[in-house]
Amino acid sequence: MAGLLMPVSILTVPMYVMFLHMGLNNTMASIIVPCCVSPFGVFLGRVYAQTSVPTELLEAARIDGAGEFRIFFGMVLRLLAPAMVTIFLFIFVATWNNFVLPQLMISSEELKPITLGLYGMASYFSPPYGQMMMASLFGIIPLIVLFLVLQKYWQSGLAAGAVKG
Prior knowledge:
It is built from ten helices and no strands. By secondary structure, the chain is mostly helical. It has helices at about 1-5, 10-20, 30-35, 40-50, 55-65, 70-80, 80-95, 100-105, 115-125, 130-160. α4 packs antiparallel against α7 (about 80-95) and α9 (about 115-125) packs antiparallel against α10 (about 130-160).
């Protein structure tokens, strides 16, 4: 719970120092690795797993002779797919829209993400609004495609509880 209350920007400078000492500053790993684990993702995953995986189902699988490995990969992960997709999308969108961490970690122009590109475009030569809107649209196209591709997992998760067995 403390991780949810702490702003991410507080950890930015210590992460920079840590990545600088490891020699990973000015790499894509310096942006991706800190964003891979989210306290919100851990919290949501734990709550969802407790409420969506009934213990009766696990006990029935054990009685039928299924091992723990098969129960986890064959049943539990399928039940948790909507939550995992939701957590992935939350983390991906937060990483995609992150401004402070890439601003600090990345110094080469080739590695800067779209958020820093839009900021640089707006602050250096103040283009017309049409160009900024077009650049912003191109920046969100990958997010739209990702949401459309992963939409079937949400729909299957909503329909999973609709049939009473």
